[in-house]
Write a sequence for this structure.
């Protein structure tokens, strides 16, 4: 799971589920990760794919400043080195989460290979991917509107 960065705050419980039979490839979610809490704060669900203890793919579903990371998040050194904007029109948190789930479902193996994790790509179990995505979706649904609460508490801005 991604390292917590000093200054970030979190709401809700993280969940990690296996995507491979040996558990070395896994999917996680933080229901609400808040970057720089306060008037300039941004945040929302963060979803990622790990191989062992290395974060490889990350989706930061933070509304209009939302983005994702490919190519090996941990290996790239700085987050900006792996930063990719969501496609045009994928701006709301719900749309970003949906798009991220679609990417994990259909592109996870190719994204792992791109990040030089060919063995991990070969270990993906399609049944575990499907079950994992369903578990993450249910966990987000059960967590409620944590982002909305953080906006009300003025930890996240909507001025983007």
């Amino acid at each position: 799971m991604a390292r917590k960065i000093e200054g970030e705050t979190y709401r809700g419980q993280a969940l990690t589920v296996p995507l491979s039979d040996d558990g070395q490839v896994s999917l996680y979610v933080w229901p609400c990760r808040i970057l720089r809490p306060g008037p300039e704060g941004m945040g929302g669900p963060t979803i990622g794919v790990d191989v062992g203890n290395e974060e490889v793919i990350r989706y930061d579903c933070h509304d209009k400043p939302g983005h994702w990371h490919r190519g090996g998040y941990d290996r790239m050194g700085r987050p900006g080195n792996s930063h990719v904007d969501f496609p045009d029109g994928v701006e709301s948190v719900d749309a970003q989460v949906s798009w991220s789930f679609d990417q994990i479902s259909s592109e996870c193996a190719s994204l792992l290979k791109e990040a030089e994790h060919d063995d991990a790509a070969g270990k993906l179990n399609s049944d575990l991917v499907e079950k994992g995505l369903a578990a993450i979706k249910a966990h987000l649904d059960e967590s409620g509107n944590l982002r909305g609460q953080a906006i009300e508490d003025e930890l996240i801005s909507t001025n983007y």
Summary: The first strand starts at residue 9 and ends at 11. Residues 25 and 51 are 5 Å apart (CA to CA). The longest helix spans residues 93-114.
